[in-house]
Please model this.
Amino acid sequence: MRSELCLHDLSTGATRVLLATDRLIEAPNWAPGGGYLLVNAEGGLFRVSLDAPDLVPVDLGPHDRLNNDHGISPDGGTHVFCDHSQAGMSVIYTIPAAGGAPRRVTPLGPSWWHGWSPDGARLAYAAIRDERFAIATCALDGSDERILVTGPGHYDGPDYTPDGHWIWFNATRGGTMQLWRMPADGGTPEQMTDAPRDAWFPHPAPGGRHVLYLAYPQGTEGHPRDRDVSLRLIDLETGRDRALFGLFGGQGTINTPCWAPEGGRFAFCRYAPPPA
Model:
């Protein structure tokens, strides 16, 4: 499968292909310093420089079964990733961005990282606890796990607003997969979308005005790859929810935070359809 790692500029509406590869790459994160992106491919983690784009592997020691839940700390000094190889299920690890030994964060699993608080103090993640999906946070050393919301449906994709006051997430708690938000310390969730489409992976922009998300046709089971999907943008000042563009993607397109630090651009992955 051919993957394209793309950058989209909101002000011009233009999309630029930064890197095209025959490898399956997923879930771009934009470094706070702006100089590189992180992606996963074939169980590993890779840096892609904006100046000289190529897949440069990150040394994660024995960890070689990553999923696409990874990211970068607000100060750029730490990478976070989720791996199955050591625990037999997805658990969260951190590693210094400059290199070093990975450290396990969550003692319990499965746990799927999705957000880092703007002050750098806490991680937000989807989890299964007591056989139910949940949205949780914990301290950087894995202590003080707080289950903020749980239920019989599917909960996923928590990401902080830039002021740290809210966590956005997607859930089927209203029947279909829609976007919700709740206070970052927990509280009653507020439904933010109610449309004839399935909404996944909300990412508040650094400026605080916009939220980017991935939309599937309503009734899609889970968040599969190789589907006709769209990227949509919510304007929190006007309430407008508009489609930016359609693409062939889904799983791997924007699973984790993907905004450029200045908030005017974002990164995403799209894929070539399989041969007819």
Remarks:
- The radius of gyration is 17 Å.
